[in-house]
Specification:
By secondary structure, the chain is mainly alpha-helical. Helix content is 35%, strand content 0%.
Length: 108
Amino acid sequence: AAAPDQNVVRGSRGPETVAVSTDRARVIAEAVRTAAAPDQNVVRGSRGPETVAVSTDRARVIAEAVRTAAAPDQNVTSGSRVNSKVISTMQNPVDARAAAARDSGNRL
């Protein structure tokens, strides 16, 4: 309660001192280079589509998306499973179709 700076508003004691970390000529040179840059005000996407690094096979991503979209419990939260007709352990229809196709191919 007796601290001298307890209720002081910033700037109420005069101008704040600034610690200079770079010499003035270097700052001016960087500002001139930045101002002369050819692409300084270019909006994102104006140079065509951006490249994306591919980390997974496209077919695998599509298969995962189809499987997720067909999941019987995709909109069920952990708290809504109690006394619910939607059971989170239901087999995914995509998995069921794949198993059926695999089993029908194995029959003699």
